[in-house]
Each structure stands twice: as structure tokens, then as C-alpha cells.
Amino acid sequence: MSERVQKVLAARGLGSRREIEGWIERGEVQVNNRTARLGDQVDEHDVIRVRGRIVRRPEHPHRWIVYHKPVGEICSRSDPEGRRPVFASLPRLKGQRWVAVGRLDLNTSGLLLFTTDGELANRLMHPSMALEREYAVRVLGEVPPATLDMLREGVELEDGPARFDSLEEQGGDGANHWYHVIVSEGRNRLVRRLWDAVGVTVSRLIRVRYGPVVLGRGLKTGAVRDLESREVAGLYAAVDLPMPESVRARGRGGPRRAPHSKRPGKPVAAGKSRNSRASREDGWSSSPPKKSGKPAAPGGRGGGRGAKPSGGRPGGGGKPGGRRQR
Prior knowledge:
Layout: E1 3-4, H1 5-11, H2 17-25, E2 29-31, E3 34-35, E4 41-42, E5 48-50, E6 53-54, E7 64-69, E8 99-101, E9 109-115, H3 118-125, E10 133-140, H4 145-153, E11 155-157, E12 160-162, E13 166-169, E14 176-183, H5 190-197, E15 202-210, E16 213-214, E17 223-226, H6 229-238, E18 256-257, H7 277-282
Helix pairs in contact: 1-2, 1-3
């Protein structure tokens, strides 16, 4: 069975399909010693070279991970300004390459999906799939109901009209107010630009869900976890791709911190939760938003109901170091 060369290379984990199409346009891909063109068909008998190197059949099963990106890291493999790239925090691979599913800007934290399956990554990012991205947003000041209605109905941006598919208030303290918003397109900095278009300042932005995958309350900033089989199956089903035979349960031991990102911490006393400043700011609680009294911070949904930052501030549901309420 023959398939387009860019699709085959993406499926082998060399990069996203869009990235590989750029290689083909620049003449960096050859099929049977002939420079490939976009749309060329190949099968298992063809010899494919990228920049002179033969592309072997994949020897390793694909992998799928979630990374809790901190503020200050960039979604590139290198940076001339010396800022830390997210790829430096990921598990090392042998004979494979991580492909990022979408991006987050420098000042946005939260869920980033990575996979070695380039075809899956391409489908997950493709505009035709319209996968939901959910964010917890902290803004400064009160937002009038009329302004919230504008954001739900549509605002004109420099690259065309846009709106939030869903916008829900989640409470807040003092000058800070939390909202949960959902968008189904991946335009650059769309969430920030929508709020900015109506004169509202975003002071914090966290992505808590991408399609069927939720960040979860147990994954601390700078940590990675392998997706479980049900999550992987959900991703392939969401973009109408057959699930690889290699899919199996991974990471059942819970989240782990990414390499090169260890941070010193104090021992935790028995019966106490590890509630450092980082975990307070990026902690999650399973309790629903309160309807009265002190407002609760934003919640997340993953198809159904997902993780929620606790309290009027992220992780502020109680005294620091205390037990989490369930």
C-alpha cells in the first residue's frame, strides 16, 4: 500500500507533516535517489533519504506524553536569546524524535502534548479537527457582563473574527478574577488577544486541557507523564486515526519530574502535603466551584469534569501545608 511521502515520514516520527513538507520543498528529501515532490507516493520497497541519510523503518513503538510547561520556557528546540526550550525537559529518545502538539507562549503555562507519531500530531493540530483547548485565565479587575457576552458572541481581531466557545466565571479574590475559556482553533496567542481586544488584562494563563487529555491535579510544574492507554485511544479516536498496535498502559506509577529540572525541596512531615510555593500556585483540587462565600478558583473539564485549581488563588484552598479537601 502506497502513501504520500510526507505522511510516511511523519508517521515515523521525524517531525510534523508541515515541517516535513518544508523539507520536501527545499529539496532535502529523496526517494530512490530522485528529489521528492509534495504528494509523491511511496511504499515499503522505496528507499527514502532525508538530507542524504536513509530513513529506516521504525524500530521503537510510539510514545505519548504530557508536559506541565512552566512560565519562561519556549516551545522551540533552541533559542538565540538563551531561554530554556521545553525539549530540554523531556525524556531522551533513541532513534525517535519528540513532536510538539501545538505551542504555548513564553508567559503561558500548563499542558503540552508530545508524541513520536508525527501523523497524529499533524491531525491534532489541523484546523479541520477543531479540537477544544481549555484554559484557566486570571484577569485583573471586574469584567462587566456585557463584555463577557461580547467575548462569547465574537470580537474582530486583526486576522479575523474570533470568540470563546465557552466562557465560565470561576470566582476570585480582590482584584483577581478567574475564568475558564474554551477555544477550538489554534491561532497564535488567541486567548490573550481576545481579552486584550475588550480591554481586559490577563495576569495568568494556564492550559488545562487539549482535546480529550486533561493536565490533572497531580502533575506539578516541570514534570512529565506518559499517557495511559485510554488517553491515547481518545486522541486517535478524536482525529479518526487507527490506534497503533503498540499502544499499552504506560506511566501507571504516577507523574515524574522531567530530567534537568530538579528543584531542591524540604522533607515533608508525615500527614502533610508537599505544598511549596510552586505547588500552591499550580496545584489542583477536585472540589467544584463554590456557589456562595469565598469564591473558588478555576476548574477544568476534559470531555466531562476535570481538574480545578483550588481556592480564589491557584492552590489557595486552605492554609499552606494543610491537607487537601476531597
